[in-house]
Design brief:
Length: 193
Amino acid sequence: MSQEEIKFENAVRTMLEIVGENPQREGLIKTPQRVFKAYKFLTSGYTQDPKVVLGDALFTSNNSEMVLMQNIEFYSLCEHHLLPIIGRAHVAYIPNGKVVGLSKIPRMVNIFARRLQIQEQLTEQIAGAIQDVIKPLGVGVVIEARHMCVEMRGVEKINSVTTTSALRGSFITNPDTRKEFFSLINSPKDARF
């Protein structure tokens, strides 16, 4: 067992004691180990480079029309309360001689999401990575998410959704590109998808 694991598990035991629990009772004996493993996974984005993931799958292409991947489901942890953020990202770009393998976009979203986050920063990080690596003519990212720090505590507003966007290049300078992007992500979908 590593020093970091021992320290983390001791901290969890202390938290359990502070809230009035007995860390030695049957249901909680292995909780510190489980929480350590869960947090190691939930914050695994710190050990990965999203730009490397994107850069490993760049392909030459003549496509000059929007590439849009919608409804990329993700979860993250709010950096203020360590409570879940559950959402979906819509990511689009206008190629400039290169496209990226489609599976790399959700992987990149997950890498950023598996860090302690605020939604506004997550949105900017995704757009920035695409801009830096693919170097497209434009980038559009919209994230819609539910925040358990809003729903489970504080104002306790169940089902409230926060929407953030980050636009670059032609998504800012070309009103038609921006309109197409928002029209596509807001259009009704076939139930098969």
